[in-house]
Amino acid sequence: MAKHPLIKTPDASIISPMGRSPASERVTLVEALDKVLEKGAVINGDVVIRVADVDLVYLGLRLILTSVSKAEELSGKSFSNPDKGLTPEDIEYIQKLQREIKRAEENIPKLIDASDPKKAEQGLAKLVLALVELIRKLMEKEAFRRLRRGTLSSAEIQKLGLSLKAVQKKIKEVQAIFGIEDEELNLDLGPLGNLM
Hints:
Blueprint: E1 7-8, E2 14-15, H1 29-39, E3 41-51, E4 54-65, H2 68-75, H3 88-112, H4 119-149, H5 154-178
Antiparallel strand pairs: 1-2, 3-4
């Protein structure tokens, strides 16, 4: 990894040319995956399945992985209609999400008093929650990009915001059940750095 020269700012703090302090030079997996989605990636591959040295199945992969906001930018077309109004189905969905968020908020204090779960269950819950939180954060970053571009309707913005909040509340609810703190979800991936 190449070292970057440090820059002293007018307020005497030190940053790198990347805009980060030296202590924050490490990139988390969330940041790395978000950058891949933001910029896009092309994956080409060929897989041949053989049995007894005989080729039986060929799978050719040509995959583009990118965020919707990048796809809209590159293609020039929109995948949604920002002028679309709320439909009765949208209103029903939003009300359902609001009830779910309220229920989760009410249950969290009750669940904290639950008896201690087994260590194995807590470890598995921590892994699953970390993956769900990773995906939620990636989706949240893309939602903010789409919001900044103005490609979402008010109904989509409201539904998306409430959906992400509902998932976050569910994560908190399960954390309370298993006695898992927020910082425990930021798994240490060794040489790759932290998850989030």
